[in-house]
Amino acid sequence: MIPIDLKGRRALITGGDSGLGAATAKSLAQAGADIAVVYRDGPENAEKVAAAATAFGGRTAIVRLADVADRNQVTALFQWMDREFGGIDILVNNAGMDGARALCAEGDPTAWRRVLEVDLFGAYYCAREAVGRMGRQKRGVVVNTTSVHEFIPWAGYSAYTSAKAGLSMFSKTLAQEVAGQGVRVVAVAPGAIKTPINANVWDDPKGLADLDAKIPMNRVGEPDEIGHVIAFLCSDLAGYMTGVTVAVDGGMLLYPDFRHGG
Ligand code: BGC
Fold first, then answer.
1. Which of 12, 112, 200, 247 has the most neighbouring CB atoms within 10 Å?
2. pTM of the entire structure?
């Protein structure tokens, strides 16, 4: 048996109270990591995630971050992490938003900017705090959650696709910067996964059928299917991986329309 062993690794997960973040917190805890669950709204879900994580034996804590796009709050978050856990070994930049659907010519520039601020600047602010600390201790992993939409254009979501494509190139560039310091940076690109971010689509039978048709495996993914991959990527089993995007998407990137014809 080859175990995924994260014992003693201190992990911070933004948006760790729901969806992919909650599943990731659980998977990392299952592999033995200490878990800091970062949440924004109400502590109830974060408390549940932390309680589930505690059952696997590591340390857990929850902390509120009102706005990942606020640099000063992010600085304070990492100071909290230092006090609470004595440092950080794993950062999962998971917090993000799709934004409301709006065609470019009709959308509100303030809303467009906000998606970039949360999805790209938020991840950047957290990463810059993390890699300084990780570089000094010569160990650490940053996981940036992108999306299949770092590759696939998506009408009505130009802010989101731009943010995710930007986050992908940020990951690669950062990986290049810190590779010599024992720090790895990887991106995970989920496809359609059953989380609150797209509940309006998979909750509706027509929406779900349309979505399934875009996925060669013909089903929406489960949050644990992302959490498991992230746990592997954070472990020493993936010790030679850096600067890549790992797609976890049931084949969504495989141009499913080309199954026939062409
Ligand atoms: C989005 C989901 C969407 C999926 C596939 C994800 O990045 O957050 O809303 O269902 O991509 O299109």
1. 12
2. 0.98
